[in-house]
Amino acid sequence: MNNFPSEVKQTLNNIINDMAEVAWLYSTKPGHSFTRSGKLGFAKTMSLIISMEGGTIGEEMMEYFNYDLNSPTPSAFVQQRTMIKLEAFQYLFKEFTSRYHTPKYKDGYSILAADGTKVVYATNPANVDDYVKPDKEGDRGYNHLHLNAFYDIVTGCYVDAIIQPGSRQDEREALHTMIDNYDTSDPLHTIITVDRGYESFDLIGHMLDKELRFVMRVKDYTVYSSLLTNLTSSFPDCDEFDVNIKRFVTRSRSKIKQSLDPDVYLYIKPQKNFRSLPPESDDLYYLNIRVTRIKLSDGSYECLVSNLPMSEFTAKDLKDLYHARWNIETSFRYLKYAVGMTNFHSRKVEFVKQEIFAKLTLFNFSAFITNHASVTKNSKKSKKHDYKINFSMAAKICHKFLKMAKSLPIPDVIAWIERNLRVDKTDERHFIRNLRGIGACSFLYRVA
């Protein structure tokens, strides 16, 4: 039996226990909170929140304490979690991830994706920063937070996350922060992939300054608001192209007027963000990017801005890299519906944030263990189709394993994951995205 799952579980518990030794650092009332020993101290409160599923607080506590009639009440649990700062869950997520996240390289490069997702929780109009008023009279509004995440496509885990108020979300600013937080010893072999929501020279300049590689999808140059509209003079007269663009970015119009060559300077207005060159600066910023326009199967065109060398990456390689970014979208679905980041146990925004970081930790716990499973071990399912790990089932197996009492025999978690496979549909399927609103999971209707 593979002992790696037990090692990962022990590591997570050890980090929580180490935090409990200095609980005052993570307490809302240092010197008063968690000063006495009890059945629901700092470590058990943290563990309980991480291991919670979709039941009510009473049901979750009943299972966690193995149906002990002398176990703490739900009210006691709420009082205990009130005394824990959000920073405790943020630290646990980062520290646990750092223990097992070692960037794996695909063709010599580590590939990250950045994106955001809406997290809807129980309606509470009192939280004005998160509340969205209904469009029609008589309809209900809703509350939501915006989760911005950095996701490692190769290893399948989250490496950073930032939560913003739903009505004041700023994905670009969040990505700026996550780029600053990301510590890599080899930036030139780290590729960041982002979609059109991040289109800006400001972010391009930031990634260039950090010496990171990137692939950014932008609006087509035929769209007025595209950042490519000021670069069209360098594009060839054809529908598909792959060209390098070089410009000196300036905040001064006089330099452009004095220039005899319109392809030398790129003017960025003072009111536009471009942190690499402040508005009052008279300096020049050298911009060297690659612009690739590719025709898609539906007849439309995709424009990608990158700094990947043409000698190593073809236009098709860039298309495949951007297509791989979709894995973060899939991970959000797993995070919400396989790991359970839809079943919150409070309408208080601080408690919801606690549970978001708890679920991110649980997701990575499942991902690290699942990465040790092998599809080839299940010989019965290796003839007619290609198979892959069923992460939805793997996450549930890892969740149950994390909740198990120490007194119970340890199951072969890896073998159970390898037993639950699904067909690997490798063809490039295309589906229309039918966007619809998704309400919060009510406290009155929980899973059985």
TrEMBL record:
Keywords: DNA recombination, DNA-binding, Transposition. One of its GO terms (biological process) is DNA transposition. GO terms for molecular function: DNA binding; transposase activity. It comes from the Bacteria. It holds the Pfam family DDE_Tnp_1. Residues 108-364 form the Transposase IS4-like domain. Belongs to the transposase 11 family. PANTHER family: TRANSPOSASE INSL FOR INSERTION SEQUENCE ELEMENT IS186A-RELATED. NCBIfam families: transpos_IS4_1. This is Transposase DDE domain-containing protein. It comes from Butyrivibrio proteoclasticus.
